[in-house]
Amino acid sequence: MFFSLVTASTAVGVPLGLGAQTVDSTAVLDSATLAPPVNTPLTDTSLPLQVVEYLTALTDSFPDTPYGMGLLPTGMVEAEIASVYVRIAGQDSVDVRNMTGNMRHVIHAIDPGLVDGGLGLGYGFKRAVEGVRTYAQLAADTPGASETLLFHAPYIEGATTAALSQADDALALARRIQSSQAAPGEILRQLEDLGEIIRGMAFGSDRDRDGRIGNDATESGLAQAQYHLALIRRVAQLGPAAPLPESLPIPVFVREPTGAGR
Questions:
Q1: Distance (Å, rounded) from C-alpha 124 to C-alpha 77?
Q2: Are 221 and 129 in contact (CB under 8 A)?
Q3: Burial level of 176, CB count in 10 A (0-12/13-18/19+)?
């Protein structure tokens, strides 16, 4: 299984860590405000079928995603692929063509509609996250939605909105790098910044350096939405989300040669 919620450094030489499982000790979710209201039931055993179907689309299976994955894991895998190609771009710190050329794959993983081809799932981080935001809201708006779901829905909305904002920042910087004529050292610094933004859109970022990733639009990422969805599933006794398909080609992307962007 290649996917994990743990966070990792995204310096140019290191991917997000969906497989590496390198823990960043600063990436601690701020749980101080996550206690549900006192009158919230400990279990929600009678969620409407429509709500369960929406939750399944978010975490387990969605009709138009690659490999039939849920929208949320699709977004996280695309973020990993974007991170991998930032790493590949920085492997040769003197080859400007390689550094800028690999941005096509980074952009493709975030929004494939912006480039003519690229290596990735072909779905895009942004499309997946927009789907998470939409289907979480549909679940919350369904008659009979539980108090637990209604409590956590605003956090999911905030996390997905923040992730999309950071994805736009990543796209803007990737496109600047793609067309850059700067010296390799300057491009390398931009790649380091890009890796940090991609890390933030996937896992959130501790912007105020207080040792925690807050549940707000300034620090949240897609992993915070996953965290809240996991709590909803647990209280509703739906069990853990399905693992990623074994056939996912993550190791292929990790092993791409440095000339992949040419």
A1: 9
A2: no
A3: middle
- For 19, the token pair is 């497989």
Low-confidence ranges of the chain (pLDDT < 70): 1-45, 208, 214-217, 249-262
Average pLDDT, the chain: 80
Kindly give, in sequence order, each residue whose CB lies less than 8 Å from that of residue 58, ignoring residues fewer than 6 positions away: 70, 71, 72, 132, 135, 136, 139, 229
CB 93 within 8 A of CB 190: no
Q: Which two tokens stand for residue 106?
A: 């980074």
Q: What pLDDT score was predicted for residue 247?
A: 77
How far apart, in whole angstroms, are the C-alpha atoms of residue 199 and residue 201? Answer: 6
Please tell me the predicted confidence (pLDDT) of residue 45: 54
The token pair that represents 199 in the structure block: 């890390």
Dig out the tokens for 127 from the structure.
Answer: 């499309």
Q: Which parts of the chain are beta strand (E)?
A: none
pLDDT of res. 26: 30
